[in-house]
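Project outcomes to date are best conveyed with an example. Our students and postdoctoral researchers have been running inverse folding experiments weekly, and each run begins with a structure described purely in tokens. The record below, which covers 298 residues, was selected by the lab manager from last quarter's runs and is presented without edits.
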């Protein structure tokens, strides 16, 4: 990892309305995929890529996220007193470490992903940085973010995670307008937000991982609200395209849209299929012989 990329921003202020009533009191980012919350997957991915500063753009009603992220000394002491040292050590290892910089910034109003990223400006400084959407779960080794940091060393500018989707699904994504494709890289001349399938410039959809040049903060600050009164990150990426460039990177992992109920279920089945302890449960539902990738697709 290059020394100039140290910061990852996690926009976690959303209300998670698609998972109500589960998210009435529990933030969506703390919903578990079997036994690990979405935010933990995101943090682990960032750590594997070498990031040491994590900025969480949250909402005042979601204090449970900060409680989860930071080490709980009282719980640690209680577990140790009860002889559960291994469990205490595991939880400490998952929480923020002493060498990591953890910042929480509040986004009181839902003014869009672009606005959420702009809120992190004071903690990023003048250097490239990453943005991870925790409900876009990407599983695989090496992690998507690690691949993208290495790829950004070649491309510079704005780099977005991209994957091919069915033509009919382009209406649900930002879609790259390609200039040149070279292996896993696609240089783009633009990005179209949720185009009609017949109008989509490609099938390369942008998903929740970005490595961005810090100049995007200037574009975000000047960005006028779009549809729904929100400041869109994709609009500001497009604004800086001629200045810093834009490329899509096709990562090697498997992506699950855990912002949807179907995607969350697929992720759980995918992970369950790789653990022998769940074999009987899957067998009871006729899933024991299915491959994990087949289950994820279904």
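After processing, the design step wrote out the following sequence:
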């Amino acid at each position: 990892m290059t020394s100039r990329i140290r910061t990852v921003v996690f926009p976690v202020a959303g209300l998670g309305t698609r998972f109500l009533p589960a998210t009435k009191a529990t933030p969506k980012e703390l919903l578990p995929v079997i036994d690990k919350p979405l935010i933990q997957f995101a943090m682990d991915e960032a750590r594997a890529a070498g990031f040491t500063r994590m900025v969480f753009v949250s909402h005042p009603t979601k204090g449970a996220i900060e409680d989860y992220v930071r080490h709980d000394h009282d719980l640690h002491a209680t577990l140790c007193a009860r002889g559960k040292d291994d469990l205490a050590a595991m939880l400490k290892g998952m929480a923020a470490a002493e060498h990591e910089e953890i910042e929480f910034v509040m986004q009181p109003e839902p003014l869009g992903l672009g606005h959420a990223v702009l809120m992190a400006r004071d903690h990023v400084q003048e250097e490239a940085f990453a943005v991870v959407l925790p409900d876009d779960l990407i599983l695989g080794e090496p992690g998507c973010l690690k691949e993208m940091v290495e790829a950004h060393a070649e491309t510079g500018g704005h780099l977005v995670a991209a994957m091919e989707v069915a033509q009919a699904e382009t209406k649900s994504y930002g879609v790259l307008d390609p200039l040149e494709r070279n292996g896993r890289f696609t240089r783009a001349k633009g990005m179209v937000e949720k185009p009609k399938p017949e109008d989509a410039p490609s099938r390369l959809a942008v998903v929740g991982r970005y490595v961005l040049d810090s100049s995007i903060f200037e574009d975000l600050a000047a960005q006028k609200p779009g549809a729904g009164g929100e400041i869109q990150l994709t609009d500001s990426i497009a604004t800086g395209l001629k200045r810093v460039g834009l490329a899509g990177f096709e990562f090697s992992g498997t992506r699950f849209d855990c912002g949807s109920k179907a995607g969350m279920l697929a992720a759980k089945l995918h992970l369950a299929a790789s653990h022998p302890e769940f074999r009987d449960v899957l067998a009871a539902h006729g899933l024991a012989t299915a491959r994990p990738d087949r289950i994820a697709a279904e």
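The chain has one domain: 7-259. Residues 7-259 form a domain with the Spore Coat Polysaccharide Biosynthesis Protein SpsA; Chain A fold (CATH 3.90.550.10). The training component of this project remains on track.
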